[in-house]
Write a structure and sequence with these properties.
Shape: globular
Strand order of the largest sheet: 1-2-4-3-5-6-7-8-9
Distance between the termini: 52 Å
Number of strands: 9
Structural class: alpha/beta
Largest sheet: 9 strands, mixed
């Protein structure tokens, strides 16, 4: 093949322009304080992501009832963190599949147990706060697999049933919380009025099932919280036609749309990567109710 100096320099110029263009895209699309991963294209994902992950148990006594931490092993830090609080009578084994799902997409997920499986909403909220605080400390704990890798200003709360009620409380009361996500949330037995949504300060996504007709997570509890969230706070409510109270043990147990929306919401508001906001869209089917407000 004949070598052409002109062709060589043309290709070199094209390469340099592409590099400069990629830096420009990075600057335009990614806010200065956001976590943007350009090796994971924004989209609708319901399966595990591209990153390898591992998990470890938190040191004994560092959390109220014990906790497992799922984290990416080959993604670039820092990592945002989600803390998932269980339902009444539940333990983290019931929903551990959420850990690998988020970790494989570049977000740390902590699945926690409460002191007893019968702890009530208000107690679960206090314990969730404790684990959120502990994860900040994990960033500086010698020997932690996440030493120096946690974005301590990017913490989110997740909860199922009474754990969802706890998450609603912390959406109002935990300073700096970036996101709140509830699954069949329950607040009818809560004492703290912040469980009703009036004081919510962070972007909140609520999932519920139309077949959940009990005090556990039905009777309009999620609807009421969504309606009460103050004006201007980003929020999304998806009620699944085919889901009941126990449809939330995995990201796809209710349907694939739950996983897609949960991931896109956390990428948008927890990581701050606004490219994902385009995927916070109404599912094509299995919708009893879908409402949004104040999304980017």
């Amino acid at each position: 093949m004949k070598f052409s100096v002109r062709s060589y320099f043309s290709q070199l110029l094209l390469f340099m322009l592409m590099v400069l263009w990629s830096f420009d895209v990075l600057a335009v699309d990614c806010p200065a304080d956001a976590i943007c991963r350009y090796d994971l294209a924004p989209g609708k994902y319901s399966d595990k992501g591209p990153y390898r992950y591992d998990d470890y148990n938190m040191p004994f006594g560092s959390t109220p009832g014990g906790a497992s931490v799922y984290y990416p092993t080959n993604a670039e830090p820092p990592f945002s963190v989600l803390v998932f609080t269980p339902p009444l009578s539940g333990t983290q084994i019931m929903y551990r599949a959420w850990g690998p799902f988020f970790a494989s997409h570049g977000i740390v997920m902590v699945t926690m147990d409460t002191r007893t499986i019968l702890d009530q909403v208000d107690s679960r909220a206090r314990q969730q706060k404790s684990v959120l605080d502990t994860m900040k400390e994990e960033n500086t704990r010698a020997g932690s697999p996440l030493y120096g890798k946690i974005a301590t200003d990017r913490l989110g709360a997740v909860g199922w049933s009474m754990g969802g009620g706890a998450t609603w409380i912390n959406s109002a009361e935990y300073d700096g919380l970036r996101t709140a996500m509830s699954l069949a949330g329950h607040n009818l037995t809560a004492i703290d009025l912040d469980s009703k949504g009036y004081g919510t300060r962070c972007p909140t996504i609520l999932f519920n099932g139309a077949l959940d007709l009990t005090i556990l997570g039905g009777l309009g509890q999620s609807d009421g919280v969504y309606d009460n969230i103050p004006s201007g706070v980003p929020k999304l409510f998806y009620e699944v036609v085919s889901a009941g109270h126990f449809s939330w043990g995995t990201p796809t147990q209710a349907n694939d749309y739950v996983a897609e929306l949960a991931l896109a919401f956390q990428k948008t508001f927890l990581d701050g990567d606004l490219r994902w906001a385009d995927y916070l869209t109404r599912p094509r089917r299995d919708v009893a109710k879908f409402e949004t407000a104040n999304l980017p």
